[in-house]
Amino acid sequence: HGIAFLDISTGELLTGEGNILQIEKLIQSFKPSEVVLSRSFSNQFEKTFGKDFYKFTLEEWVYTTDFTREKLLSHFEVSSLKGFGIDEMEAAQTAAGAILYYLESLENKQTKHISSISRIHNEKYLWLDRFTIRNLELIEPQHNSGIPLIDVIDKTTSPMGSRLLKKWVLMPLVSPEAISRRSNMVEYFTQHIFDAEEIILQLKKIGDLERLISKVSLGKVNPREILMLGKGLTAIQHIREVLEQMDHEELLSLGKQIDLCTEIREKIQSTISEDAPNQLSKGHVVKKGVNTELDDLRYIISHSKELLINIQNEEAEKTGIERLKIGFNNVFGYYLEVTNKYKDKNPIPSDWIRKQTLSNAERYITPALKELETKILNAEEKILEHEEQIFSELVDKIMDYVIPIQRNAQILAKTDVIISFALAAKKNGYCKPNVNESLIIDIKQGRHPVIENQMPLGEQYVPNDIYLSNDDVQIMMITGPNMSGKSAILRQTALICLMAQIGSFIPATSADIGFIDKLFTRVGASDNISSGESTFMVEMNETANILNNISSRSLILLDEIGRGTSTYDGISIAWSLAEYLHGNPYAQPKTLCATHYHELNELEHKFERIKNFNVSTREVGHKVIFLRKLIAGGSKHSFGIHVAKMAGMPRALIERSEEILHQLEKKIIDDERSEKQSPQKKLKQMPAPYQLSIFETVDPLVGELKQKIQELDLNSMTPIECMLKLNELKKLMDKDGE
Fold it and tell me: What are the DSSP E strand ranges found in 603-647?
């Protein structure tokens, strides 16, 4: 499949190819405001990606390879697409060409600012599916009171830097070399904060250079924006000077790549007035001295009264008429008025033309007066014409600089994000990670970047070490009480790895991270009512997505897997899933699994790369203190009743719960500790009424369920097929109970 993304405001055009899952990942990352697609693909798009997008369909012939390829060649004025790296990517060409056709078919839609096309290299970026983007709250919080990761690390100064940061967060790198280049620049700015502050000062003067130059291309730029563009180019000169003085190869290279655009910068500065208005029609856009005729017209407007008086004085002196007056009416404009007293004494010049006779005076016009009148009355119109022409010529000249200014904007955006990482690192006490080619994740004293910023005054986040390795600690089985911080440990591990791979420093004292190529989370679940899917079905869909796409470099977070169904089903699913991830011959992904099923602690004794950990607590009397420290070994208690007490449940209910818990522990838990058996065998031994059976009642559904179960070939089914079949049977029972 081919896909292309266009930011019409900046002219950035990206295109790529991939399977449906990769396309879905890109759509979730970029979140387009409008989707253009072929008419025949419309229904399939809705089924696959949902109905949340505004769609516009085009005829099938638009999506032909020859047509769209020719559209791209024509637009970019090239004979081949090899220079863009998409010459062999027909599906990508088709998507990009269709976008250009769509834009050209709209009224007043310019495409001149789309000066290049970039290829999306899926293999260059960490795989983040939509579940992970949502569950880790990278860009948007799941709840109104929440704070996403980007809010913590976004210290950017410019809008273009902020946009680039979002793109980096959603598309982390997988190349240790590329990651190192970014983090090395971040390290330099953490050590040279004054240089960072100097660049920030100049970035504030630049504004949104990316969108300013796009407005020039679209012909929708106003005088004030051209003035801002000129000031931005001046600030760029200072930024280049700062970068070129740095003792850092990568930053020095960035500085040298900046095009000063000296000629057009000076042209803007010499042409546009410092107090230029937003609207060209308001005038005073062009500086004095740019155009002689314009200056003359402005002088006439500002000195019209003085010029009229000069004519009056000249004519009075020439004729000897002392009481000569200049007036104006709407019939014949400016005139000279002579009273009868002076008319009879002094001869009227022959070039005076009488226009009106009054009882005691006569009114005349002269060639000089008429010429001045024409200039005065037409001056404003002429001024606007001149300013429009000068402004238009300036914009045309700026058009020649669209590509270098766009490149400058990209360099400034990158510099802005790098400085943002440095500022966040200094503020929050982050360290530089070592991202490498190994298959080990070793994080010392890691912290959750968002939660630590929300801690109450006087409290500190409890850091934890994480060690994962494909050779020995492939799966960490983490147990612990509710509210003890299991989920936070899972999320912080993922966020630390992600932050490291976007080039940022991380909340830890040190970290060696073998780069991950795919990050999956099965964290929390909610009913997808609009699609008719239950909590459990959502969970199974997300789990299926994980199992179908894992690699040995994947990192998987599983939080309370199986809690959407019964306890016994949940244990079975979690157990089989751990088995599958451990024993998969093709990929053994590093996995963090948080669970309240303490039976899963036995997996450590059966599988060499599964290790038990728990989030420690301390019991003081009848109270439990959450220490939030991850330690080796499994946990035997969930302290759920204690959490209920903390939530304010009635005392009588709490006491009854403790009584029932004591009975259960006496009848079941002691037996479980007596011998090592799989959870499945132990569940069969549980005495009534704790062991439930779906065959205890006489029901028409029983026979159908029994038959379906008997027909299953468990030996040939994969774990995920078992999960889905189990969900199918559950839905059958739920439907019967409605």
Answer: 610-620, 623-632
What value does the mean pLDDT take over residues 610-636? Answer: 76
In this prediction, residue 477 has a pLDDT band, given cuts at 50, 70 and 90, of very high
* pLDDT tens per residue across span 188-203: 999 999 999 999 999 9
CA–CA separation, 502 and 516 (whole Å): 12
Rounded (5°) CA angle 256-258-261:
125
Tokens 């004085």 belong to which residue? 313
Sign of the dihedral defined by the CA atoms of residues 595, 596, 600, 604, in that order: positive
Q: What values do phi and psi take at 562, rounded to 5?
A: 90, 5
Which residues touch 718 (CB under 8 Å, ≥6 apart)?
580
**Concatenated DSSP letters of 90-158:** HHHHHHHHHHHHHHHHSTT---TT----EE--GGGB-EE-HHHHHHTTSSS-SSTT---HHHHH---SS
First to last CA, the chain: 42
Sheet with 554-559, edge to edge strand ranges: 127-128, 518-523, 554-559, 590-595, 475-479, 610-620, 623-632
Condensed to tens digits (0 to 9), the pLDDT of residues 413-433 reads 999 999 999 999 999 999 999
Residues 6+ apart with CB under 8 A from 44: none
**Position of tokens 């739920």?**
734
Alpha carbon distance 525, 718 (integer Å): 23
CB atoms within 10 A of CB 431: 15
Within 8 A by CB and 6+ apart from 509, the residues are 431, 444, 445, 463
Give 650's contacts (C-beta < 8 A, 6+ positions apart): none
Q: What is the pTM of this model?
A: 0.78
- Does residue 686 have a pLDDT over 50? no
Residues 6+ apart with CB under 8 A from 349: 315, 318, 319, 366
* Per-domain boundaries in the chain: 1-124, 320-398, 431-564+576-649, 652-692, 694-738
Q: Half-sphere exposure of residue 431, counting CA atoms within 13 Å on the CB side?
A: 16
Give every CB contact of residue 430 below 8 A, 6+ residues apart in sequence: 424, 504, 505, 506, 507, 508
What is the model's pLDDT at position 427?
96
What's the pLDDT score for residue 536? 66
Distance CA 547, CA 558 (A): 12
- Candidates 3.20.20.100, 1.10.1420.10, 1.10.10.10, 1.20.120.140; CATH matching 320-398: 1.10.1420.10
Instruction: Give the separation between CA 254 and CA 232, rounded to whole angstroms.
Output: 17
Phi, psi dihedral angles at 22 (to 5 degrees): -70, -40
Question: Cβ of 43: how many Cβ atoms within 10 Å?
Answer: 9
CA–CA gap between residue 516 and residue 25 (Å, rounded) = 17
Distance of CA 482 to CAs 124, 604, 641, 646, 647, Å? 38, 22, 10, 11, 12
- Cα separation, 93 vs 100, in Å, equals 11
Tokens of 150: 């980007």
**Measured CA angle at 229 (ends 228, 233), to 5 deg:** 115
Q: How far apart are CA 597 and CA 574, in angstroms?
A: 9
CATH number for the segment(s) 1-124: 3.30.420.110
Q: Which tops the pLDDT comparison, 318 or 543?
A: 318
Q: In sequence order, what DSSP letters do the residues of 403-435 get, joined into one string?
A: HHHHHHHHHHHHHHHHHHHHHHHHHHT-B--EE
Q: pLDDT at residue 643 above 70?
A: no
Report the CATH architecture of 431-564+576-649. 3-Layer(aba) Sandwich (3.40)
- pLDDT (tens digit, 9 = 90+) per residue, 25-62? 888 888 899 999 999 999 999 888 888 899 999 999 99
Residue count of the chain: 738
